[in-house]
Amino acid sequence: MWVLWVRYESALQVVAFLKRTHGTPVPILHIAQNIELSYQPTHKHVRALEQRGVVETAKEGRVVLCRLRATQATHLWLSLLAVEEREKLIESHTVAGSLASMLREAVPEMPCDGLEALAVQTPSGDGPLAAILLAESYARDRLAARFKTRCRPLRGATEIHALTFAEVAERIADPVERDFWVANTSPLYGEQRFWETVLPVDGDPPLVTSL
């Protein structure tokens, strides 16, 4: 089978859009209308990502729907996306950017043993931003206290949630909650570990049986 060539920047646009719409299969045409590519190159990149195990597609009538798959390849692409978007977030001069900057600076400046991943989570409504600390159980409470002190200048605008792997797994067992975590959370540290936890391999039924 021929492996389709993929342009890195364009493929990241497709992955970014499917991350934001996680949980809702979207037509390829809809992706093209919302990124900086026309239909044909978008279609080509969706097919290339499908070959690599990142995207899955299914036909509904004449419409080709697609979504991200829960695979190790997807974890890698989402991690690459996080690296690309991290600096944009930090430089955005928003509350989320300030929180991201504080969190990133804290990691090398204070003891963080037991910390596996770090992320910023935006609310779906008017609630506060959240800093997500993915931590080993022995370090969870200690890390929560340290990061709360570190992020004190943003008190009232943010919350600190230190969670173990088991606690995250319990939350994302609800598909709606998992979709929210994928779409609304931006990892800043331990990106691969974060996505392995939040989007476990084979966590969703195949798209073709979900329609």
- SSE topology string: HEHHEEHHEEHEHHEHH
Provide the structure class: alpha+beta
Query: In which order are the strands of the major sheet placed?
Result: 6-5-4-7
Task: Label the overall shape.
Answer: globular
Mean pLDDT: 92
Stretches where pLDDT is under 50 for at least 5 consecutive residues are none
Q: Could you estimate the helical fraction of the residues in percent?
A: 40-55%
Helix run count:
10
- The radius of gyration over CA amounts to 18 Å
Strand content: 15-25%
Question: End-to-end span in angstroms?
Answer: 27 Å
Q: Tally the structural domains.
A: 2
Q: Quick one: biggest sheet? A: 4 strands, mixed
Q: What's the total count of β strands? A: 7
Secondary structure layout:
Blueprint: H1 8-20, E1 26-27, H2 28-34, H3 39-51, E2 55-60, E3 63-68, H4 72-90, H5 95-109, E4 115-121, E5 129-135, H6 140-150, E6 158-163, H7 165-172, H8 175-184, E7 185-189, H9 191-198, H10 207-210
Parallel strand pairs: 5-6
Antiparallel strand pairs: 1-3, 2-3, 4-5, 4-7
Helix pairs in contact: 1-4, 2-3, 4-5, 4-9
